[in-house]
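REQUEST FORM: STRUCTURE PREDICTION
Request ID: SP-0412
Submitted by: Lab K.M.
Chain count: 1
Length (residues): 167
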Amino acid sequence: MQTLTLENGTTIKVTNEQLQELMKSQKTESSIGWTPENGEMYTYLVKGNLIRTITNNNVPFDRELFEIGNCYKTETEAQRVLDKKKALRRIHEYMYKNDLVYVPDWNVSNDDYKYQIEGWFHTEDRPTLCQYFCLNNSKGNLVFRTEQDRQKVLDNCKEDLEIYLKD
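STATUS: Completed
RESULT:
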C-alpha cells in the first residue's frame, strides 16, 4: 500500500497495482524512460542516419539500446531526435571552422564571463542567452569566450539553433 498526496493536499492510500495503473494512464508520447514490453515494437537510430523499427525480443541487442536511450515509440520521434543531432553537429562544425570553440575552466571562479546559448525562449520564439562565471547552463555545450563569438553563431546558425533547441 502506498500513500499519495494530491495537489489539493488530500492523502489517499492505493495498492501497488492501482499505482501502476495510474502511472500508465499518465504516460505521454515521449519515450524518455520508456522501455517496450517483450514483443512490442520500437524504433531506434542506426549509424548512417537510418531509422529502424523492430520487435523487442529482450535479447542483449535490445537491452543495450534501452540502456543508452536509443529507443523510441515512433519513427516520428526518432526522426526528431536525429534532426536535433544533425543540427547540433552543423552548429559545432561552424564553431570549429570559425575558431569559436571554447572550453572554459568551470572550476575557476574568476571575473571572466562565459557566454552561453542556453535554450529556447518560446514566448519570443528565439534562443535564450545567459552568461555565468562558473555555471554551465548551456544545452549542447554552446559556450563562447565573448558575446561577439556567440552572436556569430546566433546570426549564422539560426535554422539549426531552432531545430536543436526548440521542443
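NOTES: Helices lie at 16-25, 60-67, 75-97, 147-156, 158-165.
Reviewed by: T.R.
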